[in-house]
Amino acid sequence: MSVLRSLLTAGVLATGLLWATAASTTPQMAQENAEGRWVVTQQRSADKACLDCHKPDQEGMHGTHAEVINPNNNLPVTCTNCHGNPGPDHREGVKDVMRFNNPMYTVEQQNSVCLSCHLPEQLQKAFWPHDVHVTKVACASCHDLHPKQDTMKVLTDKGKVKICVDCHSDQRNNPDFNPAAVKLRKEQP
């Protein structure tokens, strides 16, 4: 009986040791926070999860941002760099990730994402309206964010002026004009 008890004890100890070793080599899925509540940590990449629903089209979802480096961390730009991390209720349309050209976000909220990488001084040097509009109109109102080629970069000067005139006419004629939700009119050069 004592041999059987010794074998059983050794088996329980060995199983406990295996469990302890496995727990220390796998990432923790939950940790207790300062308030004594358990917080579950996400185990999959949020950026890869984006592509489960938001499939890239033929031209590529990331366009000009596809191969650039984030100056803040010297890593490639990802979905979550610009849109933030989706929460569990993301599919229900909650305000958890940045949606550009969406009136639920102010111009300041939308542009602060762009200005985390694009410096205002460089933008002003590139094209003077940046300086005038950076606090009044969302960047995504004029710039396409995901296609292979940003429409603004291929417009002629005449095409750019037409966009200015059209937008300022809308602003003057529409009492409900919302600069956080202005859509670029696609004019070809």
Automatic annotation (TrEMBL):
Residues 1-22 form the signal peptide. InterPro entries: Cyt_c_NrfB, Cytochrom_c_NrfB-like_dom, Multihaem_cyt_sf. One of its GO terms (cellular component) is periplasmic space. It comes from the Bacteria. This is Cytochrome c nitrite reductase pentaheme subunit. Residues 79-167 form the Cytochrome c-type protein NrfB-like domain. One of its GO terms (molecular function) is heme binding. One of its GO terms (biological process) is anaerobic respiration. NCBIfam families: cyt_nit_nrfB (TIGR03146), PRK11659.1 (NF008659). Pfam families: Cytochrom_c_NrfB-like. Gene3D superfamilies: Cytochrome C3. Keywords: Oxidoreductase, Signal. Its EC number is 1.7.2.2.
